[in-house]
């Protein structure tokens, strides 16, 4: 299991060829209380940078972008009724989706925990 | 290049309280504090919240010859409300109109007995002051009160909290105005606000703003509240945000603000018309307009926001309206919105659809306010 981060403030926990994806604690704090989460229904076989989900805080809607190429295999079923899990536990129970990696080499371009910590200062 | 952000007199207090500061109308303002928008919203609805609204403009209109009626009649040339009938110690909502019947800004007019206080939106300050100077200077002096800050204390516990420092506010009713001393400061207090709750707006000299704010925050009922909650509170209360829900292209009738135009200024009234755009506005008052601002409740939990187009059916067709404000309502625990629809879709209960991320979400036209007002009438 390896943990990666993106400059777009997402995290990926890679287990075999599947990545669990969510937003970082820093991103969750920036967004404020989350009131709604939804996978992008048209997102299935996605490429890096595609919008794969939307997360809404009281103030604004934000897209979540595919951190790497892959196939979305599952969304977090708890977020429909409890989107606030993204605020309260963004790197745990507030995970957003699982995707099967189709271009694992892209992982090398992501940040590790130290590099992400440096990014957000 | 953007101008550097202006600071209100409470800037350092906001930072000390852990505010997340954001640019708003040229000012650095608190979006929220450590508790977050949802908690701040709920606190205001259940206890009392202190808002810094010092970015708003305060303007004194003082008669040249002591004649308040002359100033009132001069103001009536630029606002369609009954200013002459506004008694000393009372406040009234109004707006500046343009020749096309659109709204240049919405504002509050307070009769302070010997002068009028006009409170205007931050983003419109320069334009409003220029307009008042151009239109009113023959009848009164137009003095921007740049040395005064403005605080709002809002919520059901506002009277208790402010009453400890200024006991006679308990006898004030909604839209009463009074001057007095608050923590040694020369204060102007009105029983009003923009949250749908009971509460007060408190004008004090800039030099006193911080210690007055601290004294209010020392009251156990009171927490500081940012602009984020101010927006969700006013939206649940069905109140307009100038620039989003009202602008130069929306008339008062389209904006569902007929209640603010008293009979005396309408057709058949003693001082009917005589303000910019009066022909169009008075005609619309009699015959209605082709579109109207309504409340909108969307199905599901996804907020429908500013700019979303509204349709009559769940696919195809041309837009029949647009959402002008939308958010998640923390008190309702559901999305709330307002927007403009064509007349046929105005009746409460009408089903329309809002386009959201390429899909159409069922939306029902609803009466406002969404949350009952807590005003002390």
UniProtKB/TrEMBL annotation, chain A:
Is this entry keyworded Zinc-finger?
Answer: no
Looking up InterPro entries in the UniProt record yields:
Biotin_lipoyl, GCV_H, GCV_H/Fam206, GCV_H_sub, Single_hybrid_motif
> Which parts of the sequence carry N6-lipoyllysine?
59
Q: Which cofactor does it need?
A: (R)-lipoate
- Which keywords does this chain's UniProt record carry? Lipoyl
- Residues in coiled coil: none
- Family that this chain belongs to: Belongs to the GcvH family.
Subunit text: The glycine cleavage system is composed of four proteins: P, T, L and H.
Reported function: The glycine cleavage system catalyzes the degradation of glycine. The H protein shuttles the methylamine group of glycine from the P protein to the T protein.
| Name the record gives this protein | Glycine cleavage system H protein
Its taxonomic placement starts with: Bacteria, Pseudomonadati, Pseudomonadota, Alphaproteobacteria, Acetobacterales
Q: Which gene encodes it?
A: gcvH
From TrEMBL, chain B:
What's its top-level EC category?
Answer: transferase
Aminomethyltransferase C-terminal domain sequence ranges: 291-371
Instruction: Please list the GO terms describing molecular function.
Output: aminomethyltransferase activity
Positions of the GCVT N-terminal domain: 11-263
Name the Pfam families for this protein. GCV_T (PF01571), GCV_T_C (PF08669)
Q: What is its EC number?
A: 2.1.2.10
Please provide the record's keywords in A-Z order. Aminotransferase, Transferase
Q: Which reaction does it catalyse?
A: N(6)-[(R)-S(8)-aminomethyldihydrolipoyl]-L-lysyl-[protein] + (6S)-5,6,7,8-tetrahydrofolate = N(6)-[(R)-dihydrolipoyl]-L-lysyl-[protein] + (6R)-5,10-methylene-5,6,7,8-tetrahydrofolate + NH4(+)
Family the entry assigns:
Belongs to the GcvT family.
Instruction: Tell me which NCBIfam families the record gives.
Output: gcvT, PRK00389.1, PRK13579.1
Protein name in UniProt: aminomethyltransferase
Name the lineage. Bacteria, Pseudomonadati, Pseudomonadota, Alphaproteobacteria, Acetobacterales
């Amino acid at each position: 299991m390896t943990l990666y981060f993106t400059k777009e403030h997402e995290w990926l926990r890679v287990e075999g060829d599947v990545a669990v994806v969510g937003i970082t604690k820093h991103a969750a704090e920036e967004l404020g209380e989350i009131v709604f989460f939804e996978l992008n229904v048209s997102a299935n076989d996605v490429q890096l940078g595609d919008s794969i989900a939307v997360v809404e805080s009281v103030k604004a809607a934000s897209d979540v972008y595919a951190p790497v190429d892959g196939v979305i295999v599952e969304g977090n079923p708890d977020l429909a009724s409890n989107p606030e899990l993204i605020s309260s536990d963004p790197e745990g129970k507030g995970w957003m989706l699982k995707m099967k990696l189709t271009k694992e080499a892209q992982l090398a371009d992501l940040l590790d925990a130290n590099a992400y910590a440096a990014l957000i200062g | 290049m953007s101008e550097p952000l202006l600071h209100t007199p409470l800037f350092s207090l906001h930072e000390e309280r852990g505010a997340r500061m954001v640019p708003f109308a040229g000012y650095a303002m608190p979006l929220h504090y450590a508790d977050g928008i949802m908690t701040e919203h709920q606190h205001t609805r259940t206890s009392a919240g202190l808002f810094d609204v010092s970015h708003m403009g305060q303007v004194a209109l003082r008669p040249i010859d002591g004649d308040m009626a002359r100033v009132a009649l001069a103001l009536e040339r630029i606002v369609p409300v009954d200013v002459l009938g506004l008694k000393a110690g009372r406040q009234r909502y109004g707006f500046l109109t343009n020749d096309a019947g659109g709204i240049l800004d919405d504002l509050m007019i307070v009769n302070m007995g010997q002068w009028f206080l006009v409170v205007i939106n931050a983003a419109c300050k320069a334009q409003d002051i220029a307009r008042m100077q151009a239109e009113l200077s023959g009848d009164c002096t137009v003095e921007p009160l740049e040395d005064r800050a403005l605080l709002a204390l809002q919520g059901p516990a506002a009277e208790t909290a402010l009453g400890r420092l200024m006991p006679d506010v308990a006898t004030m009713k909604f839209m009463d105005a009074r001057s007095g001393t608050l923590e040694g400061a020369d204060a102007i207090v009105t029983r009003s606000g923009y949250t749908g709750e009971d509460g007060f707006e408190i004008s004090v000299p800039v030099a006193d703003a911080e210690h007055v704010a601290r004294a209010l925050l020392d009251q156990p009922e009171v927490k500081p509240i940012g602009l984020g909650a101010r927006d969700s509170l006013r939206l649940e209360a069905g109140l307009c945000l100038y620039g989003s829900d009202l602008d130069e292209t929306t008339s008062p009738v389209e904006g569902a603000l007929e209640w603010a135009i008293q009979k005396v200024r309408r057709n058949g009234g003693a001082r009917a018309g005589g303000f910019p755009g009066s022909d169009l506005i008075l005609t619309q008052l009699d015959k209605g307009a082709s579109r109207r601002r309504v409340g909108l409740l969307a199905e599901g939990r996804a907020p429908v926001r500013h700019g979303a187009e509204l349709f009559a059916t769940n696919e195809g067709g041309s837009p029949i309206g647009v959402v002008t404000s939308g958010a998640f309502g923390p008190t309702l625990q559901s999305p709330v919105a307002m927007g403009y629809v064509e007349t046929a879709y105005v009746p409460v209960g009408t089903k329309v659809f809002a386009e959201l991320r390429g899909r159409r979400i069922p939306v029902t036209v609803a009466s406002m306010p969404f949350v009952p007002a807590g005003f002390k009438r």
